Amino acid sequence: MRLKDKVAIITGGAEGIGKAYCLGYAREGAKVVVADINLAAANVLVDEINRQGGEAMATDTDVSRIDQVDKMARKTLDRFGRVDILLNNAGMYKRNVAVKAATWEMDPADWDRVIAVNLTGVFLCCRAVLPDMVKRKEGKIINVASSLAFFGTDHFTHYVASKGGVVGFTRALAREVGAYNINVNSLCPGYTLSGDPSSITEDTKQIEVAARCFKRAEYPEDLVGTAVYLASAESDFVTGQAIVVDGGHVMH
Fold this sequence. Notes:
Elements: E1 7-11, H1 16-27, E2 31-36, H2 39-51, E3 55-60, H3 66-80, E4 85-88, H4 108-136, E5 139-144, H5 148-151, H6 157-177, E6 182-189, H7 202-210, H8 221-231, E7 242-245
Parallel strand pairs: 1-2, 1-4, 2-3, 4-5, 5-6, 6-7
Helix pairs in contact: 1-8, 3-4, 4-6
């Protein structure tokens, strides 16, 4: 119960890795706000958490839209009175597909959409919850980046740029809000099997596994422990860091 009675907003929380974060935080005693563009899936997860004895609520949130992000923060404050933890997990990659293309052939609209969700969305969500955290002089912000920010990959410059931006934004924000006792860190997953395993080719799995120290696939549950640590009192003196959780592919 390391997060007992803490109020946590998790964006992109209804499915995949986000769902694992929500369930993990609920097990640790947090009151969970499942913020997602798929409200039906968010409601299903909320029912599951409540049946298990936790407390959760759902809110339909497109993190690239300031009106929906502000509504998310207001609903949380109206229901729970504060925001202790923000986990910025929503992003475009597999679930909401980021289209791969050579940079010189990339549609600027695809670039704009990936940046809007993966980077601007992080800014908007932080902007929405920080007034409460600053007022109370406490809070935990975890921004999900990616191990790809440290080594790149071809045909994916919009995604890599967005996640590199998240790392830089995290470092700058940590300096800005440190005086208010607010921790800001980035969690950088590796290639994670978060959807239908049959949709991933065996070649892709083998390439990813071969590059790691731990010779197995990465699953959402592999990220939950670090996400809990960064939200808990155990990380009170950790801020501005980019923690890579990828089984030892990137050593940062």
